Amino acid sequence: MKYQFPKDFMWGVATAAAQIEGAAFEDGRGPSIWDVFSRIPGKIHGGDLPEVACDSYHRYEEDIALMKKMGIRSYRFSFSWSRIIPDGTGEINPEGIRYYKNLIACLKKNGIVPNATMYHWDLPYALQIQGGFGNRNIVQWFCRYAGVLLDNFGEDVDLWVTFNEPIAVYVGHAYGFFAPGLKDEKYARQCLHNLMLCHGEAVKLFRSRKLANAKIGIVVDVWKHYPAREGNEEDEAIATFQNEIAGYGMFLHPLFLGGYSDELTRYMKEKDMTPEIREGDMDVICQKLDFYGLNFYNGLYDNADEIRKREEIRKAGGNYQDRPVYHEEAIRDVLHMLVEKYGITIPIYVTENGLMQEDGPDVEKILNDEERIRYVRNVLKALHGAMEDGICVKGYYLWSLLDNFEWSGGYSMRYGLHYTNYKTLERVPKKSAGWYAQVIADDGFEE
After folding, report:
1. DSSP-derived pairing of the beta strands 444-446 and 2-4
2. What does the angle CA 204 – CA 80 – CA 213 come to, to the nearest 5 degrees?
């Protein structure tokens, strides 16, 4: 069977500033919360630091050449707030502006459409010590930053994203294993509300600029949970909690339906975690967008008995690890949910999707990444089916161009189409890079 995609389908790759740029303290850049968090012992696998990462700050032309060779049509990257405004609110750093101007110009020169994210998890540390997203002043701070971006790069960026996966802010404030490393769920709920206000006000600011050729959206990841045993009350309760209270529902309801879900509202009230919500806040959050970005990696099935078993092993001091079961087919159901439950009628881009490989000494094994090819092929088959169902999907971005700094996983998790040698910084194409290049050239593949 031939899985044929439209000729104008936006085939891309995605990265993030904190994960690839390096040059953490060069040319006037200030520290981000990840620069600080990574120095707390035990927080990052292997004690890895993002100071050099892939050194894309100095090697962006080389990286764009890799994209050009593959036929990549769009590159999704992020701006580093602390490279643009080192302390978050003060002087603009001309070297930061210069770097991104050069990056965008090089993309344009090579016929690659820029897709730029304003915020991909790396808050300036100077703002965190003032309360970060828990301080409602973040709305003014973020809008000032967004204005600087729009003033300098407005028409040069075709697709603008306000926030990538805002759930990372929740995880970093409620659970502590992402930056800034706090464990205060009530504070985390306020942070999320303030973040979505930042999003809404940034969209309003974008509209005021009247940029003729640019579009704006947001990226929310969806790891949809399903009860492993249909009709089992425990399984169903866990899935509901993970979806509506601790997952995508926290964002999709206010963004597209104009308020928090009944389940989340009830939960926050019972736990005394309701954030401060002022009159008009929900109207600000629920702005009309030009597109929606879906980050999809897997569908998850919850079995209460299995969850209890894992917890017992951990409490007894055991190291319970199992390889996840992949449900690539869930992307089709997720896309239907976005349209049918949340009323999303704007174009959708799959802004991240990929498969992790564990690091190891056998480089040839890592380069011969047949498992990644199988996984991505299955995702694209399900995505193609959703498009045949009438879902408006305009593009697909594979995570990631390069192996990089994978947050708390450090350099132990390899998602790249290209192998990164972190000692020499050489980029070596994996088998998946050639396969994906052929998919792009053919706008599809045969099965």
Report:
1. antiparallel
2. 40
Query: What is the Cα 247 distance to its own chain's centre?
Result: 14
Q: In residues, how long is the chain? A: 447
DSSP E strand stretches across 35-130: 74-78, 113-119
Residue 30 CA, chain-centre distance (Å), reads 22
Assigned token pair, 6: 């439209």
H or E stretch at 83: helix 81-84
Within 8 A by CB and 6+ apart from 418, the residues are: 66, 401, 402, 403, 427, 428, 429, 430, 433
Task: Say what the pTM is.
Answer: 0.97
Distance, CA of 332 to chain centre: 19
The SS3 of residue 17 is helix
Query: Which amino acid type is present at position 228?
Result: A
Q: Judge whether 88 and 126 are in contact, CB under 8 Å.
A: yes
How far from 208 is each of 1, 151, 163, 202, CA to CA, in Å?
Answer: 47, 12, 19, 10
ω into 56 cis (within 30 of 0) = no
Catalytic residues: 165, 352
Q: Is the dihedral of CA 90, 94, 100, 105 positive or negative?
A: positive
Which alpha helices (DSSP H) does 154-222 contain, by range? 167-174, 185-209
Per-residue confidence of the chain (447 residues) as pLDDT tens digits?
Answer: 999 999 999 999 999 999 999 999 999 999 999 999 999 999 999 999 999 999 999 999 999 999 999 999 999 999 999 999 999 999 999 999 999 999 999 999 999 999 999 999 999 999 999 999 999 999 999 999 999 999 999 999 999 999 999 999 999 999 999 999 999 999 999 999 999 999 999 999 999 999 999 999 999 999 999 999 999 999 999 999 999 999 999 999 999 999 999 999 999 999 999 999 999 999 999 999 999 999 999 999 999 999 999 888 878 876 545 667 999 999 999 999 999 999 999 999 999 999 999 999 999 999 999 999 999 999 999 999 999 999 999 999 999 999 999 999 999 999 999 999 999 999 999 999 999 999 999 999 998
Please, are residues 163 and 117 in contact by the beta-carbon 8 Å criterion?
A: yes
CB 84 within 8 A of CB 147: no
Amino acid at 352: E
Three-class SS of residue 242? helix
Q: What is the dihedral of CA 16, 138, 281, 287, to 10 degrees?
A: -30
Residues linked to residue 377 through DSSP beta bridges, in sequence order: none
Can you tell me the distance from the alpha carbon of 185 to that of 358, in angstroms, rounded to the nearest whole number? Answer: 31
Determine what percent of the chain falls in helix, strand and coil, rounding each to the nearest 5. 45, 15, 40
